[in-house]
Amino acid sequence: MNFATIGHNIVKLTIKYWDKFLLTGMGYTLSLAAITVAVGAILGSLIALLRMSKFPPFRWIAGIYTEIIRGTPMLLQLYLFYFALPQLIPFLNRKQYLCVAIALVCNSAAYVSEIIRSGIQAVDIGQTEAARSLGLSQHLTMTQIILPQAIKNILPALGNEFIMIVKDTSLASTFFIGDLMTQCLLIKGTTYLTMEPLIMVAVVYFVLTFVLSKLLAVFERRLRRGDIR
Length: 229
Prior knowledge:
This protein is an all-alpha fold. Helices cover 84% and strands 0% of the residues. Helix 1 packs antiparallel against helix 6 and helix 1 crosses helix 8.
């Protein structure tokens, strides 16, 4: 098959399946990525604070969790959550999307926790000492002085995490939950074409990540301008 035929097929498939498959797939992919980063950031913040706790058992638990998640493949975690969660929580039976979302959140939280922990530790220790010398409690020092600066430092890294998650959601196609790669498999099964659906979905992924990376770059420049002022 020559390139002209492949190109012609791609145009026909795009026109025919854009609404039914690709737009639906983009919706599932972006919603799954947004849920993963949003909830993962909350859970990751808690894990980061536990890892920095003065209470050793909290540090051990958070450290073990982080090392296990970072030391095992995401696809393996997806399988474990997909098959184990419904047995532990009957409510999750036949809720494939929710099981996959929970697995992605737990995975992302481990990485986000390290981003947040590094952001907190990057704040000058002198600011903590100054706040404590002025009579602020440890809680107020963290919430009013340290975290606002740390959040500003880690927002670009969280943006990059969102872009990575957009691509990592392709693994969810293993369970046919409606994401872009799932739509690619459905198009392949309907049309008996292989290369064309793959190229179509590759282009969509590239456009999504390219646009998100450019928006992230604009946001980072605005943050830098704010620092200069």
